[in-house]
Design brief:
Layout lengths: L1 H11 L5 H40 L4 H21 L19 E7 L6 H10 L4 E6 L6 H11 L4 E6 L5 H20 L3 E6 L8 H11 L5 E5 L6 E3 L3 H18 L11 E4 H4 L11 H12 L3 E5 L1 E3 L2 H6 L5 H14 L3
Parallel strand pairs: 1-2, 1-4, 2-3, 5-8, 6-9
Antiparallel strand pairs: 4-7, 5-7
Helix pairs in contact: 1-2, 2-6, 4-5, 8-12
Length: 338
């Protein structure tokens, strides 16, 4: 009597046997508790990485920033008078934008082979303010940055160290939090996201400043390898396929037509950057950034950029199978995270 009654109930749900109700019910229950556990671990991870950021920024010397900013402005005036014919003087040609209005947010892990050259390139292009977020490097990267701070003692170079590795997304979260706290003291208007692996070309900044002079309402410059004029030297075929897939995923999950969402070379207005909130600490942060563009109603434009791939940068960059991990995280955050 009892089993037959359950069988009749099961047929209401299109199931042949009552025991199927128990099986599918158990699967749904386990799935529910699985995502509850994942959500809890995700939130715990977010709180932990938030602690890492706050701990790292607690060591920033506000007096050093204040004292370093004044010589930077003096240098800007002197260099402009010294050689007005130089196309990369501190005050940019054809504009009233000062290069001291920009601060580079350089982030990296174990980049001792390239970080010195990256800092040199930025300084030699007449920029004078750099934040370096060191994600718990175990090589000599932090020591090299400290040497550069001593070498360029008339510039503002700030080193922030994570106590433990927190991956790509949280490098940027720490940077954003730094600019919320110290952006005004640094006396800047724009922040440039830049990598420490020497893939990026500092000369692209000249076209950015030219564009910015005529379009000062723009919140974000999203550099792209795939618009007219963009160049990606020695990019492997598989990387092209993965980045094409990333473009499609961005269109599907984020609703924006961005041709190169995972390009780490970006420029932000300081006031706009400080409104952004990131939660992920993986490479999926790039898609979360685009969600923030939509949420905040940012005016975004893509400009061509020059990226050069080397054996070194490819060896340290994203693994090809990360594309699958990014897809799974996007699905999870879009439909299950709360």
């Amino acid at each position: 009597m009892y089993p037959s009654f359950l069988d009749r109930i099961s047929k209401v749900f299109g199931l042949a046997r009552w025991v199927d109700i128990l099986i599918y019910g158990s699967i749904l229950t386990l799935t529910y508790f699985y995502f509850e556990l994942v959500n809890k671990n995700t939130k715990d991870g977010f709180n932990f990485t938030k602690f890492i950021t706050n701990e790292a920024l607690s060591h920033v010397d506000a007096d050093y920033i204040k004292n370093a900013v004044a010589p930077v402005h003096h240098y800007a005036t002197v260099s402009w008078k010294w050689d007005q014919s130089h196309s990369t003087t501190q005050v940019h040609k054809h504009s009233n934008i000062s290069k001291s209005d920009f601060m580079f947010h350089v982030k990296g892990l174990n980049e001792s082979k390239t970080i010195g050259k990256v800092i040199d390139d930025i300084i030699w292009a007449w920029f004078s303010k750099i934040l370096v977020v060191n994600d718990w490097s175990t090589d000599d990267m932090p020591d090299i940055v400290r040497e550069k701070i001593q070498q360029y003692d008339d510039k503002l170079i700030v080193l922030v160290n994570h106590l433990i590795n927190r991956r790509h997304g949280w490098w940027n979260k720490t940077g954003i939090q730094f600019f919320r706290k110290f952006g005004k003291a640094c006396d800047i208007k724009y922040v440039v996201f830049y990598d420490a692996d020497d893939q990026m070309d500092i000369s692209d900044m000249e076209s950015y400043i030219d564009f910015l002079q005529e379009h000062q309402h723009i919140d974000v410059i999203q550099w792209s390898r795939f618009v007219d004029g963009g160049v990606a030297t020695n990019m492997p075929l598989m990387r092209k396929v993965i980045l094409f897939g990333a473009k499609l995923l961005t269109r599907i999950f984020n609703g924006m037509r961005i041709t190169d969402p995972h390009n780490g070379y970006k420029c932000f207005r300081l006031s706009s950057l400080c409104l952004i909130n990131l939660h992920t600490d993986t490479t999926a942060y790039a898609n979360e950034l685009i969600d923030e563009y939509r949420r905040l109603g940012f005016k975004v434009v893509e400009l061509p950029v020059h990226i050069k791939y080397t054996d070194y940068s490819l060896g340290k960059g994203q693994k090809n199978n990360n594309a699958i991990n990014i897809l799974l995280e996007l699905i999870y955050r879009k439909f299950f995270y709360r």
